[in-house]
């Protein structure tokens, strides 16, 4: 808790953004952080609510001890707050930036639509801790002599590798891409999270003894069996990259793409990687239609504006959330937040209950528009409601259908779950193959960074326990 009467005296306040007209001129972060004294005030709003739902399973998958660090910040003990926060979350500067904050949804003050600004306080603690030099490598006192391979360096792989190294194991991370971070680096744009945050953690982990091997596509360039033979345990954290199929007439016209190649290329460009030899997938000077209503679609909207799109229309098959329909401003509502980011406020036209019926194209084979229709609650088109949106670029951001099966998973031949994800037990993280574990999106399907961190931590604990017969790693 913070100040007993804080929630009665202090209004909820969140960081402001640079105006849309300014922020779309660059790809960097654009949040204007609160001043330290303002953050202390926000922490003071945390009340002694008896049962703090914010750090239960639905509020915070990593079980951050939110009332405790709010109290520490309120009492100006930032260093202890940072220690507490890091005891449950390896990378609070990631989640402080990009988590949709289910903790705020769970906050008791959300009954009045003014939850504690938990995410803002989390980011402030994490940023201050790094800036002040309090975040140091934690080199294990003893080595176990065990060797563990982690495949994939997204948030699940990174969290697991860090925990395993701190338990004294010799940890090797194998990553297909030239840099670490997974979707944090190549999916999520810099305007949501700049990549030096990942670089900082990679340096910390290297100092803790983790070895990163880049450009290794396990199951393609290096057989998984080689890594199984060389390591005492193998954790698969390869994400869920398979795009959901686009079953719409006209989807083969030039200018129709999946969202990920578009986002990945821009992230690589911003990150200084050479993309000059590739087909340039750009929204500059184009009418863009983004199909989809989640995080990936929002990121396509923001990226399109920054590349210089003329107009961006977002098609969401779901109905308009009541909060938007009634023009209520009772933010944040988690369900709405999951569908709306700062990107829509940069000038996107949003069409709700909008089904994508057909992609239209010209004789040269290039897309010219999207034929849409309003859909009912069962997502069936309503006769007579058809309309056409002009388009030179159409981006499909309609979700993922589990992990890629070619390569690593087909070589492994382990059981999949009903949704096509790699099956691994919820508690032991074991797959059906001996000494092979799985965590993150590869196991649970497309999800959130905070869930990936949780699964990475828990899988590390399970592996440590299996290797050593006991574990001191936290849950
Ligand atoms: P990933 O991050 O996908 O990492 C998997 C890694 O494994 C990759 O680096 C990949 O290269 C590597 N790999 C795969 N196969 C192999 C192989 N055979 N050999 C070697 N390496 C391999 N979540 C949020 O909480 N907030 C957001 O704002 C948010 N925005 C998002 C925006 C977009 C565009 C997308 C696509 C997702 C977003 N998410 C967001 C979801 C979040 O990014 C994922 O849930 C999370 O990154 C999953 O982590 P992971 O470690 O399981 O997998």
Written account of the structure:
The chain contains 19 helices and 15 strands. It is an alpha/beta fold. It folds into three domains: 6-132, Fumarate Reductase Iron-sulfur Protein, Chain B, domain 2; 147-241 and 401-468, FAD/NAD(P)-binding domain, CATH 3.50.50.60; 245-398, FAD/NAD(P)-binding domain, CATH 3.50.50. The strands form four sheets. It has a five-stranded parallel beta sheet, with helices on both faces. It has a five-stranded parallel beta sheet with strand order 7-14-8-9-10. The model is unreliable at 327-332 (pLDDT under 50). It binds flavin-adenine dinucleotide (FAD). Flavin-adenine dinucleotide is lined by residues 98-99, 151-157, 174-177, 182-184, 187-188, 192, 216-219, 237-239, 263, 295-296, 299, 407-408, 440-442, 447-450, 452.
Offer a quick outline of the entry.
By secondary structure, the protein is of the alpha/beta class.
Bound molecules: flavin-adenine dinucleotide
Strand order of the largest sheet: 5-4-3-6-15
Q: Catalogue the unreliable spans.
A: 327-332
What is the CATH superfamily classification of the largest domain?
Answer: FAD/NAD(P)-binding domain
Specify the biggest β-sheet: 5 strands, parallel
Helix content: 25-40%
Domain FAD/NAD(P)-binding: 147-456
Keywords: Amino-acid biosynthesis, Glutamate biosynthesis, Oxidoreductase
Pfam families: Fer4_20, Pyr_redox_2
EC number: 1.4.1.13
